[in-house]
Here is the input.
Amino acid sequence: MKRLSDFVKQRRKEVNLTQEEFAERAGVALTVIRKIEQGKTNMNLDKVNLVLGMFGHELAPVESKKLDKGEDK
Here is the structure.
């Protein structure tokens, strides 16, 4: 599974945007993009989902028993 930080950084670079440009387009502060790309763990899920929404993705809670079984939904 790809880390969130790696996913966002790679996808941002694929569309040739700086962190500043990407933050503006995603509607979040530059610090949000920096925290995500640095792998910080204490972030607002709504802000993370604004960023992931740029790529058609979102994070949502998953029951731990589903993770144990390898289920994705």
Q: What stands out?
A: The chain has a mean pLDDT of 88.
